[in-house]
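Record type: ASSEMBLY
Status: queued
Input:
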Amino acid sequence: MSIEMNLPGGAAEKPEVPAKKAPTRQFARYRAIEFNGSALEYFMVWIVNLLLTFITIGIYGPWAKVRRINYFHNNTVINGFGMGYHATGGQIFKGRLVALVIIIIANLIASLDLMFAVLVSVVFFFLMPLALNRSLSFSARNTSWRNIRLQWHGNYWGAFMAIYVVPLVSLISFGLLGPLMTRIFYNFYANNHSFGTTPFTAELETGQAYAAFFTALISALVVTAGLAGLAVMIVPAMLASSMSPDAPAITAGQSLAVAGVYLVVAFFFIFNSVNLALCRNYLLQSLRLGSIVRFESVINPAVFIWIVLSNYAVMLLTFGLMIPWASVRRYNYLCSATEYKITGDINNFVDEEIHKQNALGEEFAEMEGLEFGI
Amino acid sequence: MASFSISGQFFEPRSSRGHRGRLAGGPGRLMLIEDEAEPKDAISVQLEAMQGRRDVYFTCGRYFHADADLPADFRAAFQSRRAAARSWLEVASPLRLVALVAIVVLALGVIRVLFFNFADAVVTVFPRDWEAAIGAQAYAGFEPLQGNPSQIDPAYRAYFRAETERMAAAAGIAPVPALYFHDAEAIGINAMAFPGGPLVVTDQLVAVMQADEVLAVIAHELAHVEARHSLHQIIEVSGLAIMATLFLGAEEAIIDNLASIGITLWGFRNSRAFERDADTRAAEILALSGRDAAALARALTVLQEKACEARGLEPDACGHAIGHGWLSTHPSTAERIERLNAGRP
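Status: finished
Output:
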């Protein structure tokens, strides 16, 4: 049986059947990002990477890096689709080589004379924001989902502010303006990313940043006070049982001073972990991808701290053999604590022209220890 | 495989709009065919990469996501030999796991031997004037010394300098490094050798030792300069750091930190070996210049007594504890004294 329709203007025309498109799913509730990798699987990837890198005396390193990132990206599943990573080992190798040569030459020049050292430091000082922008751009552009790549739109002065101004203002204000700076930093990072031509928008509010700050501060103080109490009770008792009666007063003081250093480290570790976890939660709550996707973050700071600390302990006790297990464990937790809700049609995203980039900025930033993320 | 047909979704370049269809073809040819489209409308594509279990990227910018894991024969047909070999290595099995770990450990051993021979070669060819420039700059920038001139009688200092030149000449060490004295409370009883030469002795050390003991300490520092230990340390530790970055990729701060800890511990081990070598050579320098070689053991005994005093302990109780263990840059003082007294090389 055929159906004919008489349309205005005369002859009946068959209506055009729209191209069959894949159904899109919208969710009434948030779903967690899935991670399909496993510790054993990643251990094999990791040990093969290590072996090939050793055999080639480091030359295989860039390909190992690509393989590693590929593993984590491909197994990060959002709405049934894994992420893609498109950088090649060759790009990273060239970038790393050039960055290494620049750093070696700069260090050699700097060691010859104090004036040269100052000059090199000044040049590097102004080079870092550029390297960081290039690094973020490279990383974003080589990450995709459903055939659309991320983009980074940050500029030099934004990166300059993030690297230098934000930490400096936090420091000179004894941390009181820290939350304000954290807000600036997080908003800069989130709002300068886009998914193809669709921008991400987010707003970490000042009140939320200060709430995270004071929660972190109180948590760190409580835990550190508890540890300090333990140290005051345990250290002198341990020393008294092993030293001569004449010595304890001096040596206990020295030991408590050393314990004090560790307590300061513990304080800042707990403070930073709690603060960053809470700020991430707040930021992702406001994160939107156009009007199509919403996000949520439900990191429990105590759980995250436990994972980080126990990972450290296990890796140290196993001389690094459990690094893959620890990496998967941490990544798995972060995925499970990051949620999304699709509220629109995800078929409508469009990407920009793809231009191949070199990896010099990324490798330079990595060698100089610049890490940037939330 | 003769031909295949894999169902899934494909995406046009730069679009997230999925189209139900199939990836079809055979070795050397790939086509994307939309469901309900005519075969003549099939799109010829060239594979760029397979990622994960289900994703295929094409050079034209299209992307295909399979409904199920890509078949093994499809992968075999389109995967490069290198990628196939790597995938084979990555398949988890107990035997493969043990073999890979064993090979990694063996490779580490080989690299250790190669690397440290290479480091020796680098030290040998490293220009001495560069080394001297590094040492001079390090000395100039060492805060605890600068601005703290020595309070020792100039005649006494001149005596030590003259004796240092005599010891160096007798041992064939040239050029003779400059010798400086500083009143450095922050450093205490100490002496040090910078790369390529400046030797520094603190007033605090001179105050607690006899002249021949001070000269024995200076002979020890001369031995460090002669053997270029500081340069060795810099090159080995820097080289290890570069290798760690290359090998481990600094993928996470934790790995960076673990690598730093490992490198630092290596540095300490190296340092202890250098100290033993310098003790041995110092005894030779003292003997060659007609001085009493036992003066170094006496100097170390004084150092040990002072260190124990600072801890409020009897020397016998703390001798082996000071500077002991794998976290120390020096062998224990007691061990050093025993070796020198035994006259063992």
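Annotation: The radius of gyration of chain B is 33 Å.
Annotation: DSSP finds twelve helices and ten strands in chain B.
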